Amino acid sequence: NSYLQRSVLEDQVQRMQALLQGEDSEEYVDITPEERAKQLDELEQKLDQMEADITEQERKIRIQKQEYEKTNGGMKRKWYKCKCLSTADIRSDIPKRFQRSVYNMYYLWLFNSLTIIMNWVAMFIYHGFEDFGDNQFIMTTLLVFVAIPGGYYGWYRRYFITIANESQTKFMIFNVNFIIHGIFVVVMSAGFEKLNSAGILLMIKEIVNDKNSWTEILVIITASMWIIDLILSLILFKKCMKTNTLMHYGKLLKKEPKRIKVFMNE
């Protein structure tokens, strides 16, 4: 159907070009300029509607493809393939003009995951093998196994689905999840020892003690990574809001192009 509509669309465009060049067809013989202008206006509305229908059909096909891959297609994948380490779905499912934004969020998730792992290592070395109690070990390890997949499915994949499906509802859920991620990074950046976070407070404590050990260097590196993670999160969150605005404007432009053009001219 989409190919048939495209051919009809091309035929209508050729007719419009012929009219603009003064080449009257049988359909437009012996009509007044006012009637011709009215027919051109109706034809333009039909073209806009056809283009919107084709775009909507392509979006539905893309959604069906994603659902198929999640069910039947996912069963055919080999067990050792990790989807979270691949960016192939970004190139196939995300519109080209929004791919950079999704790539940025993916790399932020990778950096955040690396920071969480570095935090686990830093706290393990800071407490030492003998002094690293069961509660501290369980809490720090649980943080790794919850925060990393939680970030992937909580805000990165939510943002991915938002852009792929152009869904405002999904974007609202992404907002909530990413704000929770921001609060988590702020707390970890602070460096409360009771929360087993190698952040600013713990870094200051190590620098004041002036032990010049590997532990001090590791804590400084981890604290710096938390601060960088926080700054990048704030910057990319602002860019995500801008991307959503552009995406929403594009949808309005497809549905009512004339009204948007008039609004912009005003």
Report on the structure:
Helices cover 82% and strands 0% of the residues. It is built from nine helices and no strands. The protein has helices spanning 2-20, 33-75, 88-93, 99-131, 134-165, 168-190, 200-209, 214-255, 257-265. The model is unreliable at 24-28, 73-81 and 259-266 (pLDDT under 50).
Task: Give the arrangement of secondary structure elements.
Layout: H1 2-20, H2 33-75, H3 88-93, H4 99-131, H5 134-165, H6 168-190, H7 200-209, H8 214-255, H9 257-265
Percent helix range: over 70%
What does the oligomeric state look like here?
single chain
Secondary structure category: mainly alpha
What is the number of helices?
9
Compute the number of strand runs. 0
Strand residues, percent: under 5%
